[in-house]
Amino acid sequence: MPTAVHGPDTGEHLFRAGQFRQFDGTALFIDVRRSSQIVRHIEKHYGPGSAAGFFMRYLTGCMEVISSQTEAKCQPSGDAVLAVIEGEDRVSRAIKAAQAAIRFVETTFEPENLELLSCNGRCRRGYHRNGGYHRSQSHRNSCRTMRFEVGVGVDDGIITESNLTSNYGDSQELVGSCVSLAAKLSGRTQLANAVALTKKTYSKANRKELREYRWHHGLMKLGGRRMSIRVGQPRQP
């Protein structure tokens, strides 16, 4: 029997594009570092449901923090958050929102979820159901506490916003080269809880927001070309 997805009446025109518009915008992409390792760690110690709830709390909290800083369109993108900011001074507002998201990770989300990021002892060789450990084996194969860290990418350019309609409902799609580049930048920085942006985008920000970071120069190889980037970490309050 044909399914709703593969049946002859629904295979064609499954996705229908609705209205779309193009605008100048800044893409802010916040990606979790080593997310697959975190998922495996939580599932191993606390079960699959705990991992799903853990990331849902992160996505919801991160989007709320960004929206509290500036008007932005926010949506999940896998285990990452994509925010798009329009209007005047949008690059500076994106950098400020990035700082708020990093602060949320460092001071709120990670501390509140430290138990899930820690080892409950079940993976240690010396573990016994009665709660005891052999002293000689208590540190063998022990798990270290996982760190919850993010990488943030910011780029400015033309974005296309379109509405897609399918048999499963409506969805909004945000695409553009700056969205793709912001996603790539978020994964290229070697520094934890840092924001990366191109030199061109960096030049569009006002100095007040830039002073809130410690900036480093860097190069990123993209499409066979080396691109000059700026990588910054928020200064401690």
In short:
The protein is an alpha+beta fold and 237 residues long. Helices cover 34% and strands 33% of the residues.
Describe the global form: globular
Give the topology string: H per helix, E per strand. Answer: EHHEEHHEEHEHHEE
Q: Please work out how many helical segments DSSP would assign.
A: 7
Question: How helical, in percent, are the residues?
Answer: 25-40%
Assigned CATH class = Alpha Beta
- Known CATH architecture: 2-Layer Sandwich
Q: Main sheet, how many strands, which sense, barrel?
A: 8 strands, mixed
Structure overview:
This protein has a single domain, classed as Nucleotide cyclase, GGDEF domain (Alpha-Beta Plaits, 2-Layer Sandwich). It starts with 14 loop residues before the first strand and ends with a strand. The protein has 237 residues and is α+β, with helices and mostly antiparallel strands. A hairpin with a 2-residue loop joins strand 4 (150-166) and strand 5 (169-175). It is built from 7 helices and 8 strands. The chain has helices at 35-46, 48-69, 90-112, 114-117, 177-188, 199-202, 207-210; strands at residues 15-32, 73-77, 80-86, 150-166, 169-175, 194-198, 213-222, 225-234. The longest helix is centred in the middle third of the chain and has 23 residues, at 90-112. Strands 1, 2, 3, 4, 5, 6, 7 and 8 form an 8-stranded mixed beta sheet that branches. The relative contact order is 0.18.
